[in-house]
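Narrative summary of target 7.
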Amino acid sequence: MNLRQLSTVNALSDNVTACEYQGVNIIRVIHPLAEAGISLHGGHLLWFKPQGEKDIIWLSEKAIFDQSKAVRGGIPICWPWFGQAGTPSHGFARTSQWSLLEHRENENGVIVSLALEDNEETYAIWPHKFKNVLTFEIGQELKVSLTSTNTGNQPWSYSGALHTYFDIANINDIDITGMGPKYLDSTQQGKVCEGGSTLTFNGETDRVYTQPEATITINDKNNNREILVNNEGHNAAVIWNPWQALSVNMGDMADNSYETMVCVESTIHQPSIELAPGQSHTLLTTISSR
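Modeled conformation, tokenized:
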């Protein structure tokens, strides 16, 4: 089934409809400037396509929507930790059910906000009170912001990422700049490394860049475009491509899927963010192409 051709369950406005796919509730945005889809399972943006342009966000052709785990591709929300810092990996936000908070639109685009708050399921994993508001601003560019608020009476710390998968023509013909020189190489057990100003790919890449510039640029040569990734509220940027061996071992990726995707993630790594009662912090990524 083509996700872009979902049957409408409920028209919420001229540009926003509530749809369903394999039991997953999806908010679909069709606006003169762009199209997008957001799954309430995981608060997960599934696609984003500016009008007249190619897709910017990559979604696996073998993505699994059974709600047992995060969908492969799109923008999974890693929270309240990143990676293996806790169980489950990358936290519980990307597999939780978010609620639709609001939606509004004008000639510049559509804004959709979702919410996730502490509940019995989250207490079983992480014993803190919180409210997350996830806002998507969908127009000629895409802005995704995750605002986390401590609603309890004790301080707590968190890390996380906006784990964005980008759609590219071919991994062998892209380069990335703006990620900074220093990184932790996860393929070498987190070894501290230093690289050049331009990143190209010839094998599995899993790096936490610790001094990223505000804007990281993906030069997608075969699509004749640059994808600009502007991050705020972060202290690191993760760049990932699994290459073929890992792709073959993933049931929700085709064997050659690695050729048409790369992840560039707005990340809170180390140090984590500490929030006192009542405090908030926003992690944000803005994505555009030229």
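The first strand starts at residue 8 and ends at 11.
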